[in-house]
Amino acid sequence: MRHPHRRASAALALLATLTVAACTADGTDAGGTGDDGASSPRTLRVLASSELSDMEPVLEEARKATGVTVRPTYAGTLDAVEQIASGDAEKSYDAVWLSSNDYLRLRPDTAGKITGETPIMTSPVALGIRPAAVSRLGWDPAEVTWSQIHQAVADRKLGYGMTDPARSNSGFSALVSIASGLSGAQSALTEKDVAAATPKLKEFFGGQKLTSGSSGWLATAWARRTDVDALINYESVLLNSPERLTVVRPADGVVTADYPFTLLTSASADAKQAAANLTAHLRTPAAQRMITDRTLRRPVVPGVELAGPLTSDQRRELPFPGSRAVADGLLDAYENKLRRPSRTVYVLDTSGSMAGDRLTRLRSALAELTGDFRDRETVTLMPFGSSVKQGEVRTYTVDPASPDLAIGAMRAQANGLTASGGTAVYSSLKEAYARLGSGSEDDAFTSIVLMTDGENTDGDPADAFDAFYRNQSPAQQRTPVFPIVFGDSDRAELDHIATLTGGRLFDATKGSLDGAFEEIRGYQ
Q: Domains along the chain?
């Protein structure tokens, strides 16, 4: 990865904070002061993996039983690791609760900052596939291996979606699972194992049709795609899918998340005691049963019955990389060599209302973003005002042999943007689809990013764009638009564009514009 630490730092600005609002047993609010004004020891501030939001009903029952309130802030696992390593986590949290500590343990700069890992539940990475595709392939779900999955993908008989390994632990765990399964590694994954498996890995990831920064959006996008038969994600996520899936845990092995509740060494004595009370409760048979029934994860306490959809046949645990260098090398190979490249049009509002601070922020955000572009990626910068500013539209491809050429040219163009004219949102989007052309989805992840600070004032109205989009070919309709709410832009208008095209709305009014651009990277 060209700038892994810069990427992680930028991504931290995007973390969506959700609070389990509850009162402690003695009437102290979750914010935490008792009658003497001291901070309540019954509130635990926890940096947690985003998929753990489904644990809130279980945590409410735990609060009733123990008096301990969990106040979570949700983050991607790899982003959370960066917070721990930098020392930022200890300033705001008592504990971390990630889907796995495997990557965390590879970081020597985190070793003295965590203590007391307590596994709470498990869920292996698996393949969820539409039943019709299972029948077409002639598979016995209990016997399918990673090699069989690879062969089906290589033969173009199976396409799938997966979250971005650089931003999501489910994606990273999937990457490790596939690399381990296809390399035949019998111990900790090495650079030699990855090199040996690279030809097969390139074939495997050539069949990836959907990428995403989050499991939730991936499932929604997948539901729109009749040409994509499968998803790779945690077993629990797949079993909770609105559409019935056949869940395959490959017979040759899996990588499993064990969700260890982990104290930071900086936590107070009161917080450590509260954590001990909480984890003891969560590992009781009653709580374990509630966890498996509500979340479809697997209990870690022997003797607790599995929820109905879960099968009890065992799978070998595939070897995790033995060093951070191997893990980061695998990520870098995925981003720059193995996966299909990205093709993106950035539709950039440079109307008169952008003059001044807004344009300065746009220039800065684009300059920052260029350091994150991958090898082989194609980027079009399309400024618009009352119409597309045709003389300023430029397309760049990042050449692995000389990436700085394209990156430098993009930065120069970003720094030279000027503001003038009205705001032609819909006409400019039509031009972006025309630039991408038909059928481009077959060889690249295509997307359009729309940044505007105002409502549509020029060119086509909304209904004209709606009609245009619905008349496009199925391949063209698979290109989502990711609008960014910025300045005085109309949220409802932009949300409609995202919903129509299968994209997602991003908000730069509460956070930073460069943060919004960075978060979108997980979806490209």
A: 4-119+260-296 (3.40.190.10), 123-256+315-335 (3.40.190.10), 341-523 (3.40.50.410)
